[in-house]
Amino acid sequence: MYRGRVLWLIVAVLSCGGPVLAQNDEAPVRYDGYKIVRVSVGSPEQLDQLHALGARLMNDSEGVGTVDYLLAPEAMLGLDVTGIAYTVLNDNIQRDIDAERARLAAQPEPDPRDRGWFDDYKNIDAVNAKLNAMVADRPDLASLLDIGLTLQGRHIYGIRITGPGTDKPGVEFDGCHHAREWVTVMVPMWIADKLVYTYDTDPNVQSLVNSLEFYIIPVLNVDGYVYSWSTDRLWRKNRRLNAGGCYGVDDNRNYSVGFGGGGSSGDPCSEIYRGTAAFSEPETAALRDFTMAHPNIVTAQSYHSYSQLFMSPYGYTSALPADHPTFMQMNADCVALIYAVHGMSYDYGPIYSTIYQASGGTVDWMYDAEGIFSFTTELRDTGYYGFELPPDQIIPTCEENFPAALYLANWSTSPVKFSFPAGFPTRLDPGVPYPMQVKIMVVGGTLDPNSPLLYARIGGSGAFTAYTLTPLGGGVFEATLPATPCGQTLYYYFAAATTTGITAFSPADAPNSTYSAPAQPLITILDLPLNTTPGWAIEGSWAFGHPTGGGGSHGARDPNNGHTGTNVYGYNLTGGYTNNMPERNLTTTTINCAGITGAKLSFWRWLGVEENIYDHAYLKISNNNGSTWNTVWQNGPATIDDGAWVYQEYDIATWANNQPNVKLRWTLGTTDGAWTYCGWNIDDVKIWANDPNGCPTTPGDLNCDGLVDFDDINPFVLAVSDPAAYLAAYPTCNILNGDCNGDGIVDFDDINPFVVLLSGQ
Length: 761
Fold this sequence. Notes:
Strand content: 25-35%
Radius of gyration: 31 Å
Number of strands: 34
Strand order of the largest sheet: 5-6-8-7-9-12-10-11
Number of domains: 5
CATH class of the largest domain: Alpha Beta
Shape: globular
């Protein structure tokens, strides 16, 4: 009761307060003594308490979990009274704002063509001047875009960059949906700068610019951006005057897909106010109309700050899009490229599970309404600097995100996309056809239903034979790899085309490159579908049984079944592992690998963990019954979130070859106290090796009738003179039957030994 009265009194005081703003509307808003705090929100009721304290959202959205807020100095007592856990990230944000204003005021304006242009933030006039300079310098590549007017009558400018030619796929980059996110202006400007000014010196850039149309819109919320420079550095929304006197609509809650859902607000004073209707704001309507007028756009990237996240649909729902596996692969690839530049970690995944629910966003609208593969990046940092990111981090932020932008561009060059849901075979059973799944997706076009083909040949030379694919529905096809004789290698690739005649291959440069798999028998050491428990040692949350399909607050939900059968070994089978847990292990019994070489381990996993600075996930192996352990795999610098059963295969020959006392161990330890994921789920564990003696030969029997006689002469001549023709004529035979002198090669040196075999001498 006492706590409630104190909180009520504090709220009453704060309701009359707020940032100090002089009567002159042009006078800057001041935040003297205001603090940025990171709050551990445990319930919707705690969110209500924070709102009552006047807490101003600093993240893109909010919910149960870790959220950053701006609080007045008077509100800190109220926060203490609530008992909500928090950490102060910045104890006086006005100090940083003042320093930034003084620094910017003292700087001369650099030439827009100078790299020094990116040394500090730029106002809208400087941004527009640089756009015009790029157009003036390279009119053969660049042209100015004017996609519409803002509420206050300002032009929303961008730039189109492309080389010679027409009818190209497009890729769109935009920044500054939210006014205070200044670094989101600099990254798309950096992309434009590099495309224009390195076109003549960078072959990769030149190829992409010639193959695509780039549409770059660095400042969508122009009115809000101008206001953040002139008056309120922490302003987020546009500048619409709403009913009741509050200003601003959150442009990134104003798109139609998911409009009005969770993670947006109907309160005109809220930081995430969605507006009166979808596309009520001229900024979002302008981007909508521009996008719809350019149906060639294949991918889109919207930049935000801060949190260091790379995200894909959906934000408005926890449901996963049909293309979730493709999105996750692209997310992971981009995060790896970002990390490779400066070692900066970005987490990744769907918006809903990677940060919070956010409805009415541009990413979901681009994907659901227009079929565009759309992404959003939360740039540096993770909270200490927030929107006041120091200027010495602008160029590193641009540098690390540029390779990811080029990745999306490169992905967009062909509308036909191949993926392989179950992966590729690493080997084939001799003489047995092998069915595999191929998913074919066409972005911005239509697949010619008669075009999907498999091309395959046995051996490293000769012509490829075409095989049609069988449609399974949902863009998935079945390709049947032809039966391959023991000891031979199958080489193959895939092709498909749009109804407009654009053909693509996988691998992309086929037939110069191909996929391949040898036909070779196996020695199987371990083959456990885990229908019943093998009695492995479990610790902590590891258990054997049926997963229930639950989920944590973030990341992949648990499966509701095994990959095959109902059971798995899982690190908690109900979803949402416990945080702050020491490493706990799932350990096999002893496995005897004596007498084998080239050992491999395969299994299926369903994995959801945080990056390695929080969660520690390992696959380890021992060859001395567990006395010492070697790491085969561990989670990397970004969140690993499969969201589906994924096949894993590892070469364990270094540790397992000829070893009688092998053990495997899956490990997970959790250290972060905010987010929970599903951990590990393991199924269908195998250890195997190719059998080097598994392809028996009968020297001289080239027609494979079980006899060495005159009927083998013509096949022998064919095997020596034209191996490809031999393999085509005798596909079930082993060409090494022609190795009559035992040197492992079929050539002219085998003629005399073959004659001896014929004569029976």
